[in-house]
Amino acid sequence: MTDVHEAAVRAHHEEWARVVAALCRRFGDLDIAEEAAAEAFAVAVEKWPADGVPPNPGAWLTTTANRKAIDRIRRESKRDDKQREAQMMRDDSPPEPSGAIDDDRLRLIFTCCHPALALETRVALTLRMVGGLTVAEIARAFLVRETAMEQRITRAKAKIKAARIPYRVPAAEDLPIRVSGVLAALFLIFNEGYLATGAGTDPIRHDLTAEAIRLTRLIRALLPANGEVTGLLALMLLTEARRTARISAGGELVALGEQNRGAWDRSLIAEGHQLVRERLATGEAPGRYQILAAINAVHTDARDVRDTDWSQVVALYDQLVRIDPSPIVALNRAIAVAEVDGPDVALAAVDRLDGKLAGYHAYHATRADLLRRLGRGEPARSAYDKAIDLAGNTAEVAYLTRRRDQLG
């Protein structure tokens, strides 16, 4: 029974985007696609324990979801029976490709990231439809209430339907202006896989990081000269290279400075470094993702944490702050400043962010570590408590709990 449950969870992780994208291609309706996919997975949870896991779970789920979608269409509307029936009865072959790459999930992400939607809405909708994240997980990523996020996603799907936004990869001339929202969505999908926040999920979701990398590679094939696409791919590769070293055998997060660097994937690091060098050679001013990739290149270039060029990391964050003066960037810069100027200077910078990041667990975790290094035990304990309360990742909670308990 446990094996069947694990198979169902794995199928949801691996097949959600594929099933939803196939339904969107066939029916052209995000609501129908999402609901039918969810119903198919619910049927799997009910039937697989008795019938066994099918040889091809993805095909089984897609077929079941198609039937559910057809049932819903028949229930909901009698007005366009002939048109609906023709749509339901046609074969499952895809329409003529409308772009250089024929990929259902790529079409879906461009639909979700249409410029008719606000940028944050595009990202949220993509996280739901392509990433398969729950509304609660998305709300946590945006630091907003779950009800507000539910309303945002519902309105976005309604707007796509009302505006008849096409389900396709944009024409070549439209790609550059469409890509920023897509990259933001892919970055957040990757981040959810890198440090999963969902209750009961694995602390690292390789299915999400792998899918984000796959889609970013496809977009780079469409826009090979776009610096930010290349930068995001490099950033993902250099981060993914450390995946196997990030969780201990006991299920606890392993901080960067404590990781076994021999376990890092050197091939991914080599590819990521090559992409960073490629962008530097152009002489063009780097964007946000290129700078983040360069920061990760500095970290992965050091064979030992003591070899890290922290001054270079701070200098790169100084560049990033100028184009992205967000409090999270300021927080990450402060972590690097602690290694150059000491934890007291870094703590002063972090404390200035209190009103902006009070609901963000990493803010309190950073404060806790700096206070611990300064020998201020009780304030550090209080900060650890706040971080633990806000953190959703099980491995991170285990790490923070151990650090707090070491205070005595």
TrEMBL record:
Coiled-coil positions are: none
- Record-annotated DUF6596 domain positions: 178-278
Skewed-composition ranges (Basic and acidic residues): 74-93
Signal peptide from the UniProt entry:
none
Q: Does the keyword Phosphoprotein apply?
A: no
Residue stretches making up the RNA polymerase sigma factor 70 region 4 type domain: 109-160
Domain (RNA polymerase sigma-70 region) spans 18-78
Per UniProt, the keywords (alphabetical) are:
Sigma factor, Transcription, Transcription regulation
Q: Where is this region: Disordered?
A: 74-101
Family statement drawn from the similarity comment of this UniProt entry: Belongs to the sigma-70 factor family. ECF subfamily.
Q: What is this protein called?
A: RNA polymerase sigma factor
Provenance organism: Paractinoplanes pyxinae
